[in-house]
Design a protein that fits this description.
By secondary structure, this protein is α+β, with helices and mostly antiparallel strands. Helix content is 38%, strand content 15%. The model has no long low-confidence stretch (mean pLDDT 85).
Length: 89
């Protein structure tokens, strides 16, 4: 095995460690989440895939959702939508 890669002077972590660090956010998509997503889609007038992301985030206990596609400040299924790229005055 070679030397670990560095980016901007920061040692890169092996991919398996990166993936496992995000696994705490993984939730199983069940028929219940699909039902929630269909309801969210209808109530919030957003696309199904965005609604499924909202349903998964709500299931995982998130309080906010970062998205550049949804409306900044909107509250959907108890989640506050924030745009990480928005310039707030």
């Amino acid at each position: 095995m070679g030397h670990p890669k560095t980016f901007f002077g920061i040692k890169a972590r092996p991919p398996d460690l990166v993936v496992s660090s995000y696994s705490v956010w993984c939730v199983e998509t069940t028929p219940a989440e699909l039902s929630v997503a269909f309801r969210v889609e209808d109530e919030s007038q957003i696309g199904f895939w965005d609604a499924l992301i909202v349903a998964a985030a709500a299931k995982s206990g998130a309080m906010r959702l970062l998205s550049e596609d949804l409306n900044l400040g909107q509250k959907i299924a108890g989640l506050r939508i924030e745009n990480p790229f928005a310039v707030v005055p």
